[in-house]
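Extended Data, panel c. Modelled sequence:
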Amino acid sequence: MKPLLYLFILVSIPFSAIAQEVANEAAMAGAWELDLELQIQALQQQGENKFTAMPPPVQEMFLASLETRKYIFYPDGHFEAYWLLGGKSQMLSGTWKTKNAVLRMSHENGPDRIYKLSKTGEVIKLASTGNTGNVLQTLYLKREGL
């Protein structure tokens, strides 16, 4: 009887790990937008940073761009991000993958970005594991339309 129990445990552990990883990727797939309230709170709490160093008109333009940001994570592992900045359309695309609560985004025209994933209610927090050089080091995403 014990050999059967050990066999069951050995077989079920890899399947549960695979199922959990697929569930994480399935949960990430879809259209997302920034949670503006959380995103702006995070910017205000950072103290001196790239945002606070911007002249006021540039800050206003940047904040307006946050309202238009959309992130689409396709089930096939590709992603696209869209936003308007100063009236001009911006786009970023590449591939994505999750593993162990980490999201790796490989951009077509830039370095990989690695984010630690956490979820609170309907919001997914993507905290950069390194300095991205971007104004936003942490993204707060919610399903588009919520």
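The helical segments are 2-28, 36-45, 56-68. This feature is highlighted in the accompanying rendering.
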